[in-house]
Design brief:
The complex is a heterodimer of chains A (402) and B (224). Chain A has 402 residues and is α+β, with helices and mostly antiparallel strands. Chain A is built from 13 helices and twelve strands. The two termini of chain A are 27 Å apart. The model of chain B has no long low-confidence stretch (mean pLDDT 92). The chains are: A alpha+beta (402), B alpha/beta (224). Bound molecules: adenosine-5'-triphosphate and magnesium ion.
Chain lengths: 402, 224
């Protein structure tokens, strides 16, 4: 028997009993749709997290003094012995690396800030012009710190909105002078509200040029160096460049810690990927259920079609012909179900996308391939028993039953 | 040429053995027209099924055209049956979801004959059995006589040498039955072997050679 004829015959059978066919199609499509929908939710969640990290500046590499064994942990939870200081020269030396786009050294301290009689204790950050780009800061008024040689400083500062309010009490802060300790700074900019950044509320900080902060706090030691790699792919290179350059400058000692947000992200990525796979696998169980349904429906069909099977044998069908017909029937049903299921899954994905527009629901490629493939395989696998039973049917007895 | 010698067929029902055939020995020459009569349960259908290779004897030997077909496996039996044997049944056994034409085509489909060739042969068969108008009809839109014509055309579609008919008129009125017999006999006139099982003496008498069975044995073999 030709394959095209086998398919055609199976197609007629499938069309001949629409109720049965619809039932199987429904079961199959639910299975496939479940796999596609569930895994696209998982993948959506994964992409969402990845994108969120991306918007935070995924290319960010943070260098801090001291060797920490808790690599990958967030800054601030380090346990290490008193390290050699990280200096401005160390930071500037990092510019040798081609993987680094820009960097900003950072000094942090608490300052007694006052304007006339008004005073306030605030965190004071010393840094360079590049901090603005690295932390994606925005200005409400004026400008950020001027660029120029970080070793020399102008007496200027940038302040948070709340600081401006409290110190200038509604007066325009821009262009006015304030004091930190006994030094005078002219306000050149007011920060736009940004919420938490690097553990500080940007509304409540004062940013001064690095050299000024060094003088204010009487220290050469940097708190951090913030580094931005040229691209996500360059992060690893940037990291190893930083380690190499600093080891060389620190007499061969590895006494700094380099943290990439990418490491944290990679962990999230792995967890969410595994989760997607797991829920996809769970949904695939419904495919097995559909397979069992196919088997039962086919077994019933063998009983119902005894006469026809006996007739086909009397007309010269071999056992192989009969089995092929049943497999073709199962495969057709599974393919139909899979197509419907993919469509339904796509629809579900669109609906979820409407409900939660910020999450990019997309089924992962493996689900789109694996779900229909599993559907067809289970269908054919579960129709082995019915097909064999049909092929073994004794034609005489099958024909005599009327 | 069909040659049966010492054919036994024993059915086991529980621990009872039913001897449906007891040592049937029979030669049928090519182109013969036989009728097979006898009381119900005498083994006529069993013998016909054995000749048609739908069943295997419990003992004895079966030669078809000089080839021993007693011990062929199922698939070989299917192929021999497909090439050499055509069946016509009392209840027509047409596939209800297929049209008359498609039913006639079925053995050719099973044999893997190319669609173009099938189409030509089908056209010839439809013309030969006067079914051109009915080719697109389904069995439930046909009369009993037309159904049996379709079944005969189907049995003939692979051009077999032997046609086996088990009570082909059993489900038809007298007049239609005689029509159907006339159609079947055309097969014989064209040189084919025809074996007809029947309860109707008048129909049995039309055959040149008449066998009678009782209790699984062939008790008489008349010819004129
Ligand atoms: N599959 C079977 N299992 C058990 N016994 C069977 C089977 N097929 C036939 N028989 C028995 O074999 C005997 C012969 O049956 P068969 O059908 O050949 O008779 P028949 O001459 O065709 O009768 P009828 O004229 O009623 O069709 C009967 O006793 C029947 O009960
Ligand atoms: Mg009978």
């Amino acid at each position: 028997m030709r394959s095209a004829d086998t398919l055609e015959f199976a197609w007629r059978v499938v069309r001949g009993s629409p109720g049965r066919t619809l039932l199987i199609l429904l079961a199959m499509s639910i299975g496939v749709a479940a796999v596609v929908a569930v895994s696209s939710i998982g993948e959506g969640a994964r992409l969402y997290v990845v994108n969120q990290f991306g918007s935070l500046g995924t290319h960010l590499v943070i260098v801090l003094p001291g060797r920490s064994e808790t690599a990958g942990a967030m800054p601030g939870v380090l346990i290490g012995k008193t390290p050699r200081d990280l200096t401005l020269d160390d930071a500037l030396a990092l510019k040798r690396s081609h993987a680094i786009r820009r960097l900003a050294p950072l000094i942090v301290g608490a300052g007694d800030v006052h304007v006339g009689a008004r005073r306030r204790e605030t965190p004071v950050l010393g840094s360079t012009a590049e901090l603005m780009a690295i932390r994606s800061m925005a200005m409400a008024q004026g400008q950020f710190l001027p660029s120029g040689d970080p070793r020399h400083s102008q007496p200027v500062c940038v302040i948070g909105a709340k600081v401006a309010d409290e110190l200038f009490a509604g007066r325009r802060a821009l262009g006015e002078w304030l004091r930190i300790g006994d030094r005078r700074f002219r306000v050149v900019g007011v920060l736009a509200s940004q919420g938490q950044s690097l553990g500080f509320n940007t509304d409540e900080i004062v940013i001064v040029p690095l050299a000024a902060a060094q003088a204010l706090f009487n220290t050469e030691a940097l708190f951090r160096v913030l580094v931005e790699a040229k691209s996500r792919e360059q992060i690893a290179i940037a990291k190893s460049d930083i380690e190499d350059i600093l080891r060389e400058r620190h007499d061969g000692k590895r006494d700094v810690t380099v943290i990439t947000q990418d490491a944290v992200l990679a962990t999230f990525d792995r967890i969410l990927r595994a989760l997607t796979l797991a829920v996809g696998g769970l949904a695939a169980i419904s495919l097995a259920v559909a397979g069992i349904l196919i088997m039962n429906v086919m077994l019933i069909s063998v009983t119902q079609r005894r006469g026809e099977i006996g007739l086909l044998k009397a007309l010269g069908a071999t056992g192989g012909n009969i089995r092929a017909m049943f497999f073709a029937e199962a495969a057709l049903l599974a393919l139909g179900g899979a197509a419907l299921g993919l469509a339904a899954g796509k629809l579900g994905q669109l609906v979820f996308g409407q409900l939660y527009p910020s999450i990019p629901f997309t089924p992962p490629w493996w689900a789109v391939i694996a779900a229909p493939l599993t559907a067809v395989l289970t269908a054919v696998l579960f129709s082995v028993a019915p097909a064999r039973r049909a092929a073994r049917l004794d034609p005489v007895r099958a024909l005599s039953k009327r | 040429m069909i040659r049966l010698s010492g054919i036994e067929r024993v059915f086991r029902v529980g621990d009872e053995a039913v001897h449906a055939l007891r040592g049937a020995t029979l030669d049928i020459n090519d182109g013969e027209y036989l009728s097979l009569m006898g009381p119900s349960g005498s083994g006529k259908s069993t013998l016909l099924n054995l000749i048609g290779l739908l069943d295997r004897p419990s003992a004895g030997r079966y030669e078809l055209d000089g080839r021993d077909v007693t011990d062929l496996d199922d698939d070989e039996l299917s192929r021999v049956r497909r090439e050499h044997i055509g069946f016509v049944f009392q209840f027509f056994h047409l596939v209800p979801r297929l049209t008359a034409g498609e039913n006639i085509e079925l053995p050719m489909v099973l044999a893997g004959i190319a669609p173009e060739e099938r189409r030509q042969r089908l056209a010839r068969l439809l013309a030969e059995y006067g079914l051109q108008e009915r080719a697109k009809h389904r069995p439930d839109q046909l009369s009993g006589g037309q159904c049996q014509r379709v079944a005969i055309a189907r049995a003939m579609s692979m051009g077999p040498g032997v046609i086996l008919a088990d009570e082909p008129t059993g489900n038809l009125d007298r007049h239609t039955g005689q029509d159907v017999m006339a159609v079947l006999e055309r097969v014989h006139e064209a040189g084919g072997t025809l074996v007809v099982v029947t309860h109707d003496g008048e129909i049995g008498a039309r055959a040149r050679r008449r066998l009678r069975m009782i209790d699984g044995e062939i008790v008489s073999d008349e010819r004129n």
